[in-house]
Specification:
48% of the residues lie in helices and 11% in strands. With 387 residues, the protein is an alpha/beta fold. The protein binds 5,6-dihydroxy-NADP and zinc ion.
Length: 387
């Protein structure tokens, strides 16, 4: 096992009705609140009114309209301006991963005098960030328990994972009932994203038995509970298990002591959603099985055997390449079964910009350090196989 130094400072408050604790949590942090949210789902589920009622003694400034694949301009820039103008003490993010990621970039930008892009692009290291509290309404990214946010800059086709320990939320409210209204499309995409977070940590050169067990259990829980959520969107037990599995999936616990990964599928997908603004989890579901086929070799086959046997219950007595290929096919079919479009063409991506995207990924994503290093040509091949 490799050395590690690990701390997650985020308080998780989980379960039905936990939002009643919001005023107490917020009061300990500050009075002037920037309330961030998306296009309006929080109003439809009554959460917006509930938050305003609970925070009636606070001074609220609002930043609505944060889009999926949150944009630097206008959302991050508007949020930073609002924080500075209104001397905001704390950001309250209410929504999915996009609202929270945007809030993280705002939190750092609000405490910086220059262009916030300096921070997101790692030109300058933030010295401080505003505290963030979030109420999650969509289970998937794990942003509620990690210190990263992914921000898109449309004019340069950049989608950057901005990571800094200053960006851990102080407190995340996780009430599974808020996810009952998440559409089938977003439920399935959320599952694919969370599964891929686990796979990015599982497919590495060296992993402990303990971490492998966590990962395999996480994958099984996500697959079983996603199907249950799709069959009955109000299934509390299934929504709750899914939410918890997603929360744990991205903060690095499953990778502690393992050899590094490089997160290749995320590196490739971020370019797809930067160039075409597609749903992150759908892009990942399309890329993952093609990437798996591409990296299958004598070096990796044993990992795939373990995955196939322990996650999909494939007979361990079969030939190892047969097991590996069957596991990859079963991964593909699971995503297909939960309703994800499984070709890039299905989400509006043709071959026209594959070369350009492969170049962008090779230059910006550092995939030459992945478990199986990927060159620009390799990335183009994976993208072409995904068409
Ligand atoms: O905008 P509203 O009206 O809120 O609607 C949203 C949005 O249209 C809707 N939604 C959210 N909660 C809902 C709901 N609809 C009905 N009922 C509810 N309860 O769902 C749509 C998608 O929301 P979004 O926040 O974009 O989804 P998600 O949580 O999947 O976030 C995606 C973003 O997170 C990034 C992705 O790249 C993408 O930009 N990621 C962030 C990570 C992190 N911070 O650690 C890791 C991930 O790998 C990922 O890259
Ligand atoms: Zn992801």
């Amino acid at each position: 096992m490799q050395n590690f130094d690990y701390q997650t400072p985020t308080r998780l408050i989980f379960g039905k009705g936990v939002i009643e604790k919001l005023p107490e949590v917020m009061a300990a942090i500050g009075k002037r609140v920037l309330l961030t949210y998306g296009a309006g789902s929080i109003k439809k589920i009554g959460l917006y009114d509930k938050v305003l009622e609970l925070l009636k003694d606070f001074e609220i400034t609002e930043l609505p309209g944060i889009q999926p694949n949150p944009k630097y301009d206008p959302s991050v820039l508007d949020g930073v301006r609002l924080c500075k103008e209104n001397h905001i003490d704390v950001i309250l993010s209410v929504g999915g991963g996009s609202v929270l990621d945007c809030s993280k970039a705002i939190a750092a930008g609000a405490m910086y005098d220059g262009d916030p892009w300096d921070l997101i692009s790692y030109k300058v290291k933030a010295k401080a960030a505003l505290p963030i509290v979030d109420i999650l309404t969509l289970a998937t990214t794990g942003s509620e328990y990690d210190c990263g946010g992914v921000i898109s800059r449309t004019e340069t086709n950049d989608k950057i994972g901005y990571i800094d320990p200053l960006l851990y939320p102080v407190c995340s409210f996780l009430d599974p009932t808020y996810t009952f209204t998440v559409s089938k499309k977003q439920t399935a995409a959320g599952c694919a994203d969370a599964m891929n977070h686990i796979m990015e940590q599982y497919f590495v050169e060296d992993a402990s038995l303990l971490n492998d067990g966590f990962c395999e259990a996480g994958l099984k829980s996500l697959m079983i509970n996603t199907k249950a959520c799709l069959a009955n969107p109000n299934d509390y037990r299934a929504r709750a298990e899914m939410m918890f599995a997603c929360t744990l999936g991205c903060n690095g616990i499953y990778a502690l002591g393992n050899s590094p990964s490089g997160w290749p599928c995320h590196g490739i997908e971020h370019a797809l959603s930067a160039y075409y603004d597609i749903t992150h989890g759908e892009g990942l579901a399309i890329i993952t099985p093609r990437w798996m086929k591409f990296i299958l070799s004598d070096k990796t086959v044993d990992r795939f055997v373990k995955y196939g046997v322990n996650v999909f219950g494939i007979d361990p007595g079969m030939d190892k390449y047969e097991i590996a290929n069957k596991a990859i096919d079963m991964t593909y079919h699971f995503f297909e079964e939960i309703g994800i479009p499984m070709h890039l063409r299905d989400v509006g991506i043709g071959e026209e910009r594959i070369g350009e995207m492969a170049h962008h990924i090779a230059v910006n994503e550092g995939l030459d350090h992945a478990f199986v290093p990927l060159t620009e040509k390799d990335i183009a091949e994976i993208l072409t196989a995904s068409l």
